[in-house]
């Protein structure tokens, strides 16, 4: 019987949460040498060079062995970090993971939602103690969606940078604009400004590299083909889209990575356009985790370019949705190639 995402409700252990604080499989081999800047956008080469210089300065202690030097090392100066701002598909995550791989000492990597969940599991004080031994804290997809996350993450960044941890984050939004269009950001302006003062902002311009070879529009697969391929593909899952949306309300987004462990391909039937943020934002997180794991998607229903309604694409979350469309298009193309390579029944 084919597995289903709807049958999976993982509860990762604390050990699993900590072990997952590394780059995902898609970026396991990412290095500065393999980042190819688009020559039309000089900021990409500039960001690559700045990341390299930043890596060289990580973990350096004060020179000299006198008492004053030792006292200074026992109370490190507040660290300044980097904030990689730019549109989706310009290579921010590639640069972030490249930095992780060459950084000295202990370093941790996670998405915004993974860190918020870790703090929830450990408690704030213990989370700070656990992360404070790191040379580098890498935060991918920094996007504040609610006031509680704003307060939590700005405080976490302040506490860790005060302990000398260098923090590097990627986002589609400049620090001073976080929360814009989603909640009353002006009510939290002091916290946002305090956080943004800890970063040197690197603006990375460019086009979505996933579209450099042309459009990623992938038409829906016939439902009978989705069903047949799911039944024949080892390690595949098969879910009705409506059932999956309901299941995602019961699983915390930080557990979506564990939910797709050991899956070879995801198959969905009856995909429709989403018009409500609460469904769409959860699906964005799932698509991000599928993309991280390079798991192909085969879907019937609408063409995936119409996954999010126009009003969502005009909202304060529009950058998330456009990134998600780019990523699900890439995964659907992988799914189409998988289907084309499957043996045909006699």
UniProtKB/TrEMBL annotation:
Assigned keywords, A-Z: ATP-binding, Nucleotide-binding
InterPro entries linked: ATPase_AFG1-like (IPR005654), P-loop_NTPase (IPR027417)
A molecular function GO annotation: ATP hydrolysis activity
Gene Ontology cellular-component terms listed: cytoplasm
Pfam families for this protein: AFG1_ATPase
Coiled coil feature spans: none
Identification of the protein by name: ATPase
Organism (species): Brachybacterium phenoliresistens
